[in-house]
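Hey, quick one: can you model this chain's 3D structure?
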Amino acid sequence: MQQALFSIAEPALNKALAHDHSAADKLGSLEGKSLSVELTDIKLSVNLSVYNGKLRLSSETSIRDCFVKTELSHLKKLSDATQITSLIKQDLLELEGELSVAQKFSALFMDNGIDWQEWCSSYLGDGLTHKVFSSGKKAVDTLKRKQVDLDYTVQTALTEELKVVPSSIEVELFSNQVDLISARTEKLIASLNSIKEKM
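Sure thing. Here's the predicted structure for all 199 residues.
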């Protein structure tokens, strides 16, 4: 099913990219390269590659120059190296392989003058396109809300019900106690060293 959708989307995307005067150079720099993307929020895995100056889509994601696992909303940040570092530190992005490949594919789709909603409307019509984009946004928002609710439920269960994970307050108290003991230990060592010197 997914591959069937890709076979429809592939020529349409190439047609859309033809409206971007900088796309040819971008595609040229990606010739023979491939990127596999797993979008966790919308449960989509796709391999993007470039051959003979054309974008190719496939569900076969095992052969790639770069692998990215993230959410749809974070894809546009891949062209900024500082954003990537921040996303990785926050566990919002998993990245393997050539970073430059991910950045170039990101630039191909994000840094252009194509109005994607207008492009879709030429195939689906204004009304249906609006519904698709609105539904897609609502679906992503709903998934994010459910993920937040689930995270809260799991955290509450682990800290309050099962008590297998300390709460943030308990962690802070423990950290303060460690700092206090460390300070007292350093003071005691200093006192012992002073006594030794007098002996």
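One thing worth noting: The chain has seven helices and five strands.
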